[in-house]
Amino acid sequence: MKTALETPDLNALLGIPFTDELLEQEVAINLAMHLFRNDLVTLTKGARITRVPLVDFIQMLGTQGIPVVDHDPADLDSDLENLG
After folding, report:
1. What Rg, from alpha-carbon coordinates, does the chain have?
2. Cα–Cα distance for residue pair 30/18, rounded to 1 Å
3. What is the sign of the dihedral through the CA atoms of 53, 55, 56 and 58?
4. What is the pTM of this model?
């Protein structure tokens, strides 16, 4: 006699509302953050992947401690001197 293996209800298991749409959004966010962190996509492309406005994507990166500007300090000093 074979018994069917039941898969757990993710909502009950995690204790939070969980939908396929939420899962897809979280996967897209994590993918975009990973790609941006590794210089594989721009901020704009990352926002498109996550399907959120650019400002929201920048805030998401900030909450994860991912800098949105990677500027060499020496270049910054030079740029500031050129402005003044």
Report:
1. 20
2. 17
3. positive
4. 0.66
